[in-house]
Amino acid sequence: MAVSAAEIEIGKRLFIEGWGGDTPEAPLQFMTEDVVMRDILGHAEAMRGHQEVVDFWGKAAGNLRVPPEEIFVSENGMSMTWMAYVRIVDDSENKGKWICGEGMSRLEFRDGLVCLEVDYWNGPQGMCDDWEEHLNARAAMTPEQLGQITGGNMDL
Fold this sequence. Notes:
Largest sheet: 8 strands, mixed
Order of helices and strands: HEEHEEEEEEHH
Strand content: 25-35%
Oligomer: single chain
Number of helices: 4
CATH topology: Nuclear Transport Factor 2, Chain: A
Distance between the termini: 43 Å
CATH class: Alpha Beta
Number of strands: 8
Shape: globular
CATH architecture: Roll
Mean pLDDT: 91
Radius of gyration: 15 Å
Low-confidence stretches: none
């Protein structure tokens, strides 16, 4: 069965409002209770269920932004490219800046909610002062230009 427009919206909201939310529980409203999640880089084993997701991602609540860029749909689910931004909160000289990196996620749905999320990325690729400015600069680039950069600083 094809992915519905409502499911595509849930997938986008998971990343914008869920992973970008201010509480560890923010993503759960978009996931089934028995969700299976894999973060290829940061978590060797699959996370199963709400509590394991909160236990792993909760520490990033309020300091993570993962805006989707491109959406791809198939009969089995959807994939999206995204740019992840993590605010630096330690007392280093970079405090308040954002570590950033490109990635892609595969989502499957059941009963209108995400039941599987697999994240593919290679970790942080750079740093920026303002995540929204960085994202807007990326949006203004052609696909060819985007293919020639990493997630790091750009000459704006």
